[in-house]
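Weekly modeling sync, notes
Attendees: AB, CL, MP (scribe)

Item 1: holo prediction request
CL wants a bound-state model with 2-oxoglutaric acid before deciding which constructs to order. AB pointed out that an apo prediction alone won't tell us much about the pocket. Agreed to run with the ligand included and paste results into these notes for async review.

Input as submitted:
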Amino acid sequence: MGFEISPEQVQTYQEQGYIIVPSLFTEEEIEKLYKVAMEDQVMAQHAYDLNDQTGKKTKLTLWFTPGNDIYGLLTRSKRIVETVDSLMDGDSLVCHFHSKLMQKQPKTGGAWEWHQDYGYWYKNEFLFPEQMCSVMVALTEANKANGCLQVIPGSHKMGRIEHGFSGEQVGASMRYVELALKEMPLVYVELKPGDTLFFHPNILHRSEANLSDKARWSLISVYNRQNNKPYNETSTSCISPIEMVPDDAFMYIVPEKITDNASFLVKEEDVTLKNN
Ligand SMILES: O=C(O)CCC(=O)C(=O)O
């Protein structure tokens, strides 16, 4: 155990807008997390459906404050916090904006339209996207058949693209997505459980519906620097420094159950999810 990002990986992130760290979490760790997540009544109570344009639904639960529960121990783990610290611009302390448990169910799990995460967070009035980073930990296998993430490597260098509403989601201007695809490839991010994707707020990405008979679950956490204060966000988690925990805390600490102290997002009816 123990992971330290290499200078080559930092350079790849800067050039491509993402890196995949294979097996950042062990099979045993992921089995433990996935089992808790599947049986977690609190997660289920706070889950909501996000409709894609065809009415297919992605189930997700979003919260702001990472605690001593199993999810918090993962998002606060040294191997993730130090990695995002190396990838993000700036030097103020690393904070946690929010985490989402993404539950893309077999046959019904919906698509995500092309977007940049900063297409959402711009609306929260964060000023410095380079001081933010998203991390996706695969809890199940993610592949083409079950609607894995697709990215356009290098597209983060285009800067922020205009976004409009796309059903209940925010979608990037398709004109710019089409132009991006003339210049850059489309890559399917296939992951094994425990593989972890670090991606830039301006990389264009999407996913297709899960038409397979296998679920695709992942945990996506977003990090921010303390000095990158949003001017349109009520949660203060994104400017509250993370209390980092050692990598093995995840296995040796008996985690608490997640509670309402995590500050779950409640989906407002008819309002596109500004926090994505
Ligand atoms: O996991 C997915 O299918 C898409 C998630 C995504 O695009 C996001 O959270 O920004």
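Recorded for review: The helical segments are 7-16, 27-39, 41-45, 70-75, 78-87, 117-121, 174-183, 249-252.
Action items: CL to compare against the apo run; MP to circulate these notes.
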